[in-house]
Amino acid sequence: MKPRQQRMLAVGLAVVGVAVAAGLTLRAFEENMMFFVEISDVIAGEYPSERNFRIGGLVVADSIQREEGSLDLRFSVTDTRCELDVSYTGVLPDLFREGQGVVAHGRMADNDLFIADKILAKHDENYMAPEVAESLGKHVQDQTASLGGRSSECETG
After folding, report:
1. Are residues 28 and 49 in the same domain?
2. Which of 57, 60, 96, 125 could connect to 121 by a Cys-Cys bridge, CB 3.0–4.6 Å?
3. Among residues 56, 35, 51, which one has the least CA distance to residue 101?
4. The pTM is what?
5. Does one domain contain both 22 and 45?
């Protein structure tokens, strides 16, 4: 081979190598991507059924149920319109409590129960995850816009 052909072969192999690396990286990102889904959308059945996703909202007052001596826990999360029951096994964050913002990672079970594998609680009294704050704000605006009138969608209270 001539030197020019060797350089062209090297450049071609480098381009193919970079393309393969980029393809593998994008595939890994796609497999590990986790979507945030609003609770109202989950209740409506609009969630990725084949993969894990995140939900977020406020822990409903008097909804926390735990058996003595067990790490199994059930509670409800609301976006101020709809409530979703969540099941979690494990140690909870110190700041987890009723009325506080929470983000749960997991998937839906067949019985309309969200099975969480990770629970995240806000880290101080002023912070709330941007997705949760946006979702809650949107539903509060929807409720104030329809003052007095009840919609057919689920509502708390």
Report:
1. no
2. 96
3. 56
4. 0.66
5. no
